Task: structure prediction
Amino acid sequence: DFIVSVNGVTESAGAMLRELKAERVNLKLVRAFNTFLFLEKGKTQQHGLTFPKQIMDALVVMEIGDGYIQEHNGKCEDDSQKVLLNDRIVSINGHVGTAETLKPLLEKETGSFQLITQRPCPADAASKAPSGMFRFF
Result:
């Protein structure tokens, strides 16, 4: 899940973190949404992604530079098929783990492979159904 607001503050993770120190805290959470992507990487191609310098549990996409990921994104008609900024990479070809585990896998993967990312569920996906069902199309 994702914290998207703390006491009404949404502009940055740092600002929300500061709000968590308040005596009273009001959080807005959204469910995580998994995106299954199929990528193709040549033997000498680089992914072009930049990750946080500080090792975290999740492999978070901070920048998308020149590489096969940017190439893949350019071929996609819809954002749901792309790797996006702030996506969490949670699986590479069926392997799950921390950022420390996944980053080397992404570096050495070649040919066709599956990448699973997590991002906040789109706001318009929640239906008004009392059962809390989601619609994605």
Q: What stands out?
A: The chain is about 20% helix and 30% strand. The longest helix spans residues 99-108. The first strand starts at residue 2 and ends at 6.
